[in-house]
Every structure is written in C-alpha cells, then in structure tokens.
C-alpha cells in the first residue's frame, strides 16, 4: 500500500501505533504549554535524536521540513516584524519540532497497522453506535477507489482532449462524477451480492 | 433449479420484464437480447439483487424475497465491469471478503485463496494491488471472488464485453471449465454455441427459448 | 447504515484524494495563489452525498491523511499536517461538508444562487472560522493578521464555489436517483 512508511526494525518501529500516537499528542500539547525557547530547543534536539534511534537519515529529517520551508520562512519574517527576533525563532522552532514529531510517527508506522489499531480501538465507541467492521469496510473501499478514480479521470480527460476540452474542469468533472456514481451503485450491489450484511 | 413464476418487473411506470415464467435446470444457459431488452435486470432477479414487482423467484425452493442470504450464497454473481465488483485494494483481501461474510475460518480462507489463485495461474499476485492487474486478470479475480463462496449457480452479466479478444478467450475458457450451473447474459454469440439452452429477450418478453442452433439465427434475424 | 451509504462515504473520501492529482490552476498575472482542486471535493461531498454521508466521507479522508497516506495535494500526509499552519482547514473539511449537506437538505428546490450561497457558507465561512484561529494559534499570529493572509485565498475559493455549484446541479440532473 502506498504510504510514507520507512521500513526498519528500531524500538520505535516496534512500538504499537496507539502508544506512538498517544505519546505524540502528549508531547505536542506539552510544547504548546511551555513558553520557553530553551525547552523548545531541547525538545527539538530530542526529536532529532529519536530519528537517529529509529535509524532515519538526516535527509529524512530534512524531508519533513522541506515541503513547508517557505511557510516557516514566511512566519519567521512575519513574527520578527510583529514581535521581535526571539519570539520569531521560538515560534518557528516549535512548529518545526511538532512537524518532526508527527513525521516520526508517520515514518515508523505502516498505514495498514495504523488502520488496524484504529479499527480495533473503535470497539470502545460501539456504545455510541460506531461499528468497527463498517469503518474497516469504508477504509478499504476508499483505498480501492482512489486508483480507480484516477483512472476514470485520465480516461475522461483523454476523451475531452479529443474535443479540445481537457482543460475545462466542468467538462471533465461532470462525466467523472456520473461514472463514479454509477460505479458506486454497482459496487454496492456487488457487496450485497457477495453476502455482506450491514 | 431456479424457478421464475409469473415475474413482472417495473421501475416507476417503466416496465422492464412482462410476466415471465421459466424453469432453469440446464447446466449452461445463455440469455441474449439487445441493450435494454431486460436481460441484465433478469440476471439480477436470480440472486435477489432485484426483487420482482409481481411474481416470485425460487432458487432450489428458496424464495429470493424471504431467503435473501441463502440465495446469495447459492447464486454467485459476476458483473460486467470487474472494477465495480472488486471491493478490496489487495487481491487476497478481496477474495477473503465474501468468505468472511460466510464466516469461514482463517485457515479455510487461506487454503481456498491458494486453491483458486493457482487454478487461474495468479498465485504470485496474491499480495498485488488489484488495480495493477490486467483487464482479464481483474475479471478472473472477480470470478474467483464468487467461486470461493462455493455457489451452486454462477450468474454472469456480460463478463466479456469490456475485454479484448485474447482476454475474452481466457474468460470463456474459465467459464466453460466451471462445474457449477452457469447462467450467462452476453452479446458474444460465438461464446454460446456449446450451451444447452439460449433464451432471447426482446422488450421485456421471451422471444425464443431453444437450443443455440435454433435460437441464435432467430436472434440475428430479429436484430436485422 | 446501509451498504450504499458506506460505499458513498468511501467514494467521496476517495474523490477528495483523487482531486489532489489535478494540476493546480494558476491565474497567471492576477497574482493569486494557485487553486488546488481538493476543497472542491469537500463542497461536492456535501452537495451530492448529503450531510451525514458527506461529513463522514471527509472525516474518513482526514483519518486516512492522519494515518500517513500522502493524499493531500503535493503528496503530503501524516500527523504533521495538523501541526502545520493549514491543519485547521483540513480538520474543518468534515464540518464544512456536513454543513453544506445539512443546509441543502433544507432547501431541496434551491436555485443556482441560493445553492452557491450555501456552498460558499459551508466551504468558505465555516472552513475559515475553524482554519484561521488554528493558524493563528500554531503560528502565534494575531487573529487579524491571519485573517489578512487568508483574504488572498477568497477569490480562488469563490471560483471553486461556482464550479461546485455547476457540477452539483449538472450531476443531480443527470443522476436524479442520487
């Protein structure tokens, strides 16, 4: 399955997804409670150390930051102008630490494991009317649909290209939407035909 | 045997099937007819996906209205477009879906998955994402997903329409090798020459019901 | 919940994901930020699948992003999204879709303008009401500054509202059994 997982056998990889998510939430909330540049700097160093423990490279640390780099720089400048240099550095370091912490969970946990522990965790929501089996079915279906939709979109764009309309969002979206709704009706028949009882 | 008793099917004021009565007991039965002749709706009646507006459909004595679950296990259904039938992203997950609905054991599921995949030479695709399979392989997966549920009847709704000639042959070969009773709705007339019985639908009625050598020429004449 | 609802929920979650593949449209010369098609998925889910299905579809999408699937445009995903400046907007998507569906269910005969107004309310007002304070918190900005930044995105979002209204009306006509 396509995900952002980076295979490995470190202690962090082996932790259960639930534990990692909980630790991340506690850590993330904690970062918002402290207003101290020193503590944030220590936290950042600690998170980078965790990357090292997980056997991840400096490139992977950088990859977490790179997509949002321009936003960080923008905020750095804005804060500098609004509140001065030390606040600006503090805010941007805190943001970077949070991103790295979250990225660590994503890199060391398979999406399928995460989904599995999620659906099993949903057992506790049963009294609220949540059915874990149905959630599991919806997740699998969504993953199944993504490539199919991408393919339908490509086909429709080719067809519209022949009419010179491949850049018209409406001319592409309308047939795609209608085909996918037809597919949804058929697949829901197919699920019933294969003995599924909601 | 599937027993269709005085079945009428209508959506709102549009009548799809008009008072059809049939007994299906042959091993290879084909349903042919123009687009919109009602053959697809007829196929869907056989496993309770569609309920008749009037009349009843009995599968080995079980009414589709009251025994939906049992009927669906007895009558497997293969759709025209395998993309609309494959429910799960990975081949083995998809095969397991129907078996889990029938509460098969884990070991049983694993064994049947191996059996069916080796039958169609797809064993090395067990952990493949379904969307990377070829059109023919997808249709074989769709058929496999039905067969692992051990149905007595297999209904196929134009399973070869979207395929190229080579894959058409592959699927035809697979259909001919089925030990189950096969009810096939199709436009591919050359698939049907070995069948026991061909039923031609026209405008919601049965135009002819005979052996292929009689029914197919009649159908061709009807269409021209 | 019936099979069809589960399928629709999965479908609109997948649609929002697939829209990430659409190349962003840039309005060269107008100095506007590029429009990514993804929030179109939010509007369409609300307008076509309804409040409950649409809202759950986007909730499912958010969960899939959170568990690390790279489904946001540019191949982004993972928990980090929510720690970032745009995290609040993504979290607002399920609520936006729900609100659009809920309002449209109460105005089934809505004409083009009314429908567009409803989609704009859910897809812009509700979304910004959640996304902007989140951005202000994460980036430690005064609320007014965050509002100023987001004003630049309003024209693009208005274009999406019009597109979503066009598409939703067309699809509803072509697929009346929806």
UniProtKB/TrEMBL annotation, chain A:
GO CC annotations, alphabetized: plasma membrane
Organism domain of life: Bacteria
Pfam families from the UniProt entry: CbiQ
Cleavable signal peptide: none
InterPro entries the record matches: ABC/ECF_trnsptr_transmembrane
Entry keyword annotation includes ATP-binding: no
Assigned protein family: Belongs to the CbiQ family.
UniProt keyword annotations, A-Z: Membrane, Transmembrane, Transmembrane helix
CDD domains tied to this protein: EcfT
Official protein name in the record: Energy-coupling factor transporter transmembrane protein EcfT
Record membrane topology: Multi-pass membrane protein
Subcellular location as annotated: Membrane
Keyword Kinase recorded: no
TrEMBL record, chain B:
Protein family: Belongs to the ABC transporter superfamily.
InterPro entries: AAA+_ATPase, ABC_transporter-like_ATP-bd, ABC_transporter-like_CS, ABC_transpr_CbiO/EcfA_su, ECF_ABC_transporter_ATP-bd, P-loop_NTPase
Single GO cellular component term: ATP-binding cassette (ABC) transporter complex
Record PROSITE patterns: ABC_TRANSPORTER_1, ABC_TRANSPORTER_2
Pfam families, sorted: ABC_tran
Ranges of residues in domain ABC transporter: 2-220
The protein, known as: ATP-binding cassette domain-containing protein
GO molecular function, one term: ATP binding
Keywords: ATP-binding, Nucleotide-binding, Transport
Stored Gene3D superfamilies: P-loop containing nucleotide triphosphate hydrolases
Automatic annotation (TrEMBL), chain C:
Coiled-coil boundaries: none
Membrane topology: Multi-pass membrane protein
Pfam families (UniProt xref): BioY
Keyword field: Cell membrane, Membrane, Transmembrane, Transmembrane helix, Transport
GO-annotated cellular components: plasma membrane
A single MF term (Gene Ontology): biotin transmembrane transporter activity
Keyword Membrane in annotation: yes
Keyword flag Magnesium: no
Compartments in which it is found: Cell membrane
Record-annotated membrane-spanning stretches: 30-49, 56-73, 79-104, 116-137, 149-168
Domain of life: Bacteria
Family under the similarity heading: Belongs to the BioY family.
Name of this protein: Biotin transporter
Organism: Shimia litoralis
Upper taxonomic lineage: Bacteria, Pseudomonadati, Pseudomonadota, Alphaproteobacteria, Rhodobacterales
């Amino acid at each position: 399955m396509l995900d952002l997982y980076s295979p490995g056998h470190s202690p962090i990889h082996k932790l259960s997804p639930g534990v990692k998510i909980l630790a991340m939430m506690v850590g993330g909330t904690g970062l918002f409670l402290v207003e101290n540049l020193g503590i944030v700097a220590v936290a950042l160093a600690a998170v980078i150390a965790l990357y090292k423990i997980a056997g991840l490279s400096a490139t992977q640390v950088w990859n977490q930051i790179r997509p949002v780099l321009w936003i960080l720089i923008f905020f750095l400048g804005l804060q500098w102008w609004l509140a001065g240099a030390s606040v600006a550095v503090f805010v941007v370091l805190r943001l970077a630490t949070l991103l790295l912490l979250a990225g660590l969970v994503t890199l060391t946990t398979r999406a399928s494991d995460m989904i599995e522990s999620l659906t099993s965790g949903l057992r506790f929501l049963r009294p609220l009317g949540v059915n874990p089996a149905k959630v599991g079915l919806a997740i699998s279906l969504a993953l199944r649909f993504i490539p199919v939709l991408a393919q339908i979109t490509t086909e429709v764009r080719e067809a519209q290209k022949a009419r010179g309309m491949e850049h018209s969002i409406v001319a592409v979206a309308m047939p795609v939407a209608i085909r996918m709704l037809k597919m949804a009706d058929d697949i829901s028949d197919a699920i019933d035909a294969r003995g599924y009882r909601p | 045997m599937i027993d269709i008793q005085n079945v009428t099917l209508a959506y709102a004021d549009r009548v799809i099937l008009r008072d059809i009565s049939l007994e299906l007991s042959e091993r290879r039965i084909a349903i042919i007819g123009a687009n919109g002749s009602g053959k697809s709706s007829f196929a869907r009646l056989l496993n309770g996906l569609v309920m008749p507006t009037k009349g009843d459909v009995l599968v080995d004595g079980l009414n589709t209205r009251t025994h939906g679950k049992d009927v669906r296990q007895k009558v497997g259904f293969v759709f025209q477009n395998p993309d609309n039938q494959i429910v799960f992203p990975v081949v083995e997950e998809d095969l397991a879906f129907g078996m889990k609905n029938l509460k098969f054991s884990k070991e049983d599921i694993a064994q049947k998955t191996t059996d069916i995949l080796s039958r169609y030479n797809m064993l090395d695709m067990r952990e493949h994402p379904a969307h990377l399979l070829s059109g023919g392989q997808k249709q074989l997966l769709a058929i496999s997903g039905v067969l692992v549920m051990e149905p007595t009847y297999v209904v196929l709704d134009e399973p070869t329409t979207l395929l190229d000639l080579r894959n058409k042959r592959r699927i035809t070969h697979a259909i001919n090798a089925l030990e189950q009773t096969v009810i096939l709705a199709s436009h591919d007339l050359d698939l049907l020459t070995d069948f026991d019985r061909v039923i031609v639908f026209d405008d919601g009625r049965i135009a002819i019901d005979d052996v292929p050598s009689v029914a197919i020429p009649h159908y061709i004449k009807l269409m021209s | 919940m019936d099979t069809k609802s589960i399928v629709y929920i999965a479908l609109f979650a997948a649609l929002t994901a697939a829209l990430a593949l659409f190349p962003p449209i840039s309005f060269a010369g107008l100095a506007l930020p590029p429009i990514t098609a993804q929030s179109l998925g939010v509007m369409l889910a609300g307008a076509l699948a309804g409040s409950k299905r649409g809202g759950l579809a986007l909730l499912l999408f958010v969960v899939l992003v959170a568990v690390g699937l790279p489904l946001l445009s540019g191949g982004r995903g993972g928990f980090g999204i929510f720690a970032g400046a745009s995290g609040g907007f993504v979290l607002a998507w399920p609520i936006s879709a729900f609100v659009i569906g809920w309002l449209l269910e109460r105005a089934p005969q809505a004409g083009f303008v009314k429908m567009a107004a409803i989609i704009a309310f859910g897809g812009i007002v509700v979304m910004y009401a959640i996304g902007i304070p989140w951005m202000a918190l994460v980036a430690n900005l005064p609320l007014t500054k965050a509002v100023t930044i987001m004003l630049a995105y309003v024209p693009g979002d208005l274009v999406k509202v019009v597109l979503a209204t066009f598409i939703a009306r067309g699809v509803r006509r072509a697929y009346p059994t929806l």
